[in-house]
Amino acid sequence: MVNRAFRTENITLWYLFRFYLIDLCKQLELIHKEQNIQTSLILYCGQSRMSINEFNYLKSNIGSFILANGFFSSTTDIQIANSFLSGAINTEDYKVILFKIIVDIDKYVGYVGECEILLSIGSIFQIENVDFNNELNVWQIHIRAIETIRKRYGNKDNINLKICNISTIDLINKNYEKALEFSMNQLLWYKQYFPDCYLSIAKFESCTLTCWSHKIHLHITWLYLTRDGRRIGVNKIFDNMKNFLQSNQISPIVKFHFTLTYFWIQMVDLAIAKNSKDLNFKEFIEKNSHLLNENLFLDYYKKKTILDNPAAQEQMVLPDIKPLPTLVTSNNKK
After folding, report:
1. How many CB atoms lie within 10 A of CB 30?
2. Are residues 129 and 99 in the same domain?
3. Tens digit of pLDDT for each residue in 223-269?
4. Torsion angle of C-alpha atoms 151, 156, 158, 161, degrees rounded to 10
5. Could you please report the per-residue DSSP string of 264-314?
6. What is the pLDDT of residues 109-138, one digit of tens each?
7. Are 220 and 184 part of one and the same domain?
8. Bridge partners of 129?
9. Are residues 215 and 298 in the same domain?
10. Residue 236 has what DSSP assignment?
């Protein structure tokens, strides 16, 4: 289904599969690293019907590069690949093709099974030769997986950025209205979830924010948790909150407090989990107005435990009145 969508060059279909593709590519890369195979492989992939125009193009462009516009399976066993060509014959309009692929597997991303190799979308190959295999009665196209693009443009982040920019320009040229629609939808999504004050997070991280309040603290926490999720967001909140409050020029009274920072993360995250994810911050805080109570932590901590305790500023101190609420305990009370 994914390969079929990519061959249509319909960006609407591509867009629908974007999250699946990202996850699959990441999974392939993870599996490849875990296998840690340090060798070269010769792989085979059969194609029972290749149009004469496509065949002649490949044959007349030895040394050129081709890009896989879908995921495809290959095998280390030539007989298995040939079995997929059973019954196929060469005609004036179509040719029976067997790809012979040389892969330096330690530099390549894919899933390696016992005799099956799944090659990722965007795989780049160089055409080395095209000849006829008399024994199998098929045309054999010799290609090699390459690292030329990486060597030319540098690290993977740079490659992704350049390919993204090139693809975006190409898609806009061919599908202007659809590209504009996706861009507007993306802007509307950001406006819905992250209004203009979202830009304050940039000032927060650069320590140039000129004001600070409990509500701003809640907003910054909400932004990180909704944008990055709890697992990533928590670390960003702690790192940036500590950096900002230690270097801020707003008030010498405002100091970083580890336990309080964690407390508000927990309370905001719980409120996010219990509410619709379609809320913007204004709607979120209206539905969770209890968060505006700056002394809410005193329902869980004695003052001497959290405010008069230097240890609470440097590390997490457990509450001594009642446990902090969680999604499980909160649901059990209903």
Report:
1. 12
2. yes
3. 999 888 888 899 999 999 998 888 866 666 778 999 999 999 999 99
4. 130
5. HHHHHHHHHHHS-TT--HHHHHHHTGGGG-TTGGGGTS-HHHHTS-HHHHH
6. 444 444 677 777 777 888 999 999 998 889
7. no
8. 142
9. yes
10. H
CB 130 within 8 A of CB 139: yes
Domain ranges, residue 257: 201-314
Number of domains in the chain: 2
- Does the residue 182 lie in any domain? yes
Do 162 and 169 form a contact (C-beta atoms < 8 A)? no
Residues 23 and 99 in one domain: yes
Whichever domain contains 89, its CATH number is 3.90.176
DSSP string, 141-156: EEEEE--HHHHHH-SH
Neighbour-count burial of 101, counting CB atoms closer than 10 A to its CB (0-12 exposed, 13-18 middle, 19+ buried): buried
In sequence order, which residues have a C-beta less than 8 Å from that of residue 2 and are 6 or more positions away?
17, 20, 21, 70, 71, 121
Same domain, 137 and 30: yes
CA angle 161, 164, 166 (to 5 degrees): 110
Residues 159 and 254 in one domain: no
